[in-house]
Design brief:
By secondary structure, the chain is α/β, with parallel strands linked by helices. The protein contains 8 helices and 11 strands. It has 2 domains: 216 residues, Dihydrofolate Reductase, subunit A (3-Layer(aba) Sandwich); 81 residues. A hairpin with a 5-residue loop joins strand 10 and strand 11. The structure holds NADP nicotinamide-adenine-dinucleotide phosphate. One of its GO terms (biological process) is one-carbon metabolic process.
Length: 317
């Protein structure tokens, strides 16, 4: 980075639809509280650098975002004055913003948008890390995520396969991308002096937790699984669905249907019909397990494909 300490890492964090939309008409065209919580947790305590339009996209009560030094890039003197009055730090360029951020003696600086600022950050090879929440949403918009190029690699996906489901039903997952070490400015600057591993703020290779974007981010926190835990959970799910769908439920259905017929043939019509009805439920359950298992297998296949070609995160979809 420009002027930062040798151990300061610069990360970008954003949320996007699976087609790469990050904003529309000055806001994010979805509502995903889990992502806001993730953003808050991830960036808390670190300086955040943003463009003036992103600052203005925050609800007033989140200007500045609490618990973080808010550095806002603007060339507009009036806007700069207002930012300053509210407790933010106006700066005239991205370089100036990063310089100021590095002065806050932190291990990590977060670039939090929007489109124009992400684009400059990526184009100039300034950041080492990108934490991206990918939301399965059909929303369209006027601002897009930057395209990460081949010098970036996917280092983590949460969950490893499939998606999380937000409380409001939106499906999403979180990707962590890193620039390959030889490509990063930070690594060049620290070549002779390797950075010590971070703990609280820097959650490197195996463990960043991503997060979302914008302003109102203020909420709880979703526990995320490690890739290993996620794979284990997936294997267990597959096994349970197979056991239930192909063995237990068919057996129960057969047993119940037989019992139902026996009762009906012995003139115990009502109990017999009840058993036959229950048998249908077992059959429906078996069918559901089969379909669910098939979908899970498909997701695993897709996830393998995306992990093998990690260089196009922002544009994925
Ligand atoms: N999904 C997400 O995670 C996420 C995150 C952040 C933002 N967003 C969305 O993104 C949209 C805003 O993005 P945007 O691209 O329109 O605007 P932006 O990048 O937030 O801000 C652009 C403004 O910042 C200033 N600026 C940026 N780079 C500069 C530079 N190098 N030198 C001087 N000034 C510079 C300029 O302000 P002046 O015009 O004042 O000079 C410019 O107009 C909103 O819809 C927002 O909701 C989404």
């Amino acid at each position: 980075m420009s002027g930062g300490s040798a151990t300061t890492e610069i990360g970008m964090i954003w949320a996007q639809t699976h087609t790469g939309v990050i904003g529309d008409a000055g806001a994010m065209p979805w509502h995903l509280p889990e992502d806001l919580a993730h953003f808050k947790t991830t960036t808390r305590g670190a300086p955040v650098v943003m463009g003036r339009r992103t600052w203005e996209s925050f609800p007033e009560k989140y200007r500045p975002l609490p618990g973080r030094q808010n550095i806002v890039i603007t060339t507009d003197a009036h806007a700069a004055e207002q930012i300053h009055e509210r407790g933010g730090h106006p700066v005239a360029s991205l370089d100036e913003g990063l310089e100021l951020a590095s002065g806050f003696a932190t291990e990590r600086i977060w670039v939090i948008g929007g489109g124009q600022v992400y684009s400059e950050t990526v184009t100039r090879g300034i950041a080492d890390l990108a934490v991206i929440t990918v939301i399965q949403s059909p929303a369209s918009g006027d601002t897009s995520a930057p395209a990460l190029t081949a010098d970036w690699e996917l280092t983590r996906r949460d969950p490893a396969v499939g998606t999380h489901q937000g409380a409001n039903g939106l499906q999403y997952h979180i990707e962590t991308h890193r620039r390959k070490p030889e490509m990063t400015e930070t690594s060049r600057a620290t070549e002779a002096q390797p950075a010590a591993p971070n703990t609280a703020q820097a959650a490197p290779k195996s463990a960043p937790q991503a997060m979302p974007q914008s302003a109102s981010q203020a909420t709880p926190q979703g526990a995320s699984q490690s890739p290993d835990q996620a794979s284990q959970a997936t294997s267990t799910n597959l096994m349970m669905l197979g056991l239930g769908g192909y063995l237990i439920l068919p057996f129960l259905a057969l047993f119940t249907v037989t019992l139902g017929f026996v009762l009906v043939l012995n003139d115990r019509i009502l109990p017999g019909l009840a058993f036959l009805f229950v048998a249908q439920l077992w059959v429906a359950g078996g069918l559901w397990a089969h379909l669910k298992r098939r979908r899970l297998l498909q997701e695993i296949k897709e996830a393998r494909g995306s992990t093998e070609s990690p260089e196009t995160p922002g544009a994925r979809g």
